[in-house]
Write a structure and sequence with these properties.
Structural class: mainly beta
Strand content: 35-45%
Shape: globular
Largest sheet: 5 strands, mixed
Helix content: under 10%
Low-confidence stretches: none
Order of helices and strands: EEEEEEEE
Number of helices: 0
Strand order of the largest sheet: 1-3-7-8-5
Distance between the termini: 23 Å
Amino acid sequence: NDHDIIGVVTTGSAITASLALANQYGGGQRFTFKDVSGSCSGSNHIVIATSAGSGQTIDGQGTVKIQTGYGAVTIASDGVGSFYIVGTN
């Protein structure tokens, strides 16, 4: 993947972004997911998920949510089997 900033619009409903397996990315590769519409809320949130059934996690969880307008989260791959949150806004 050549992109490390993913802008998401949540005006209609919740959106889920799924990550590939962690070993598909280089160790330390970062992705920032950002609500660019400002409409993120309790029902129109952004869900970042690991590959279904992979057993991989993001800081020990299968999913991470952005639930605030213009919120963002930066996630890094360890290049093996996990992802880590390295920043939020």
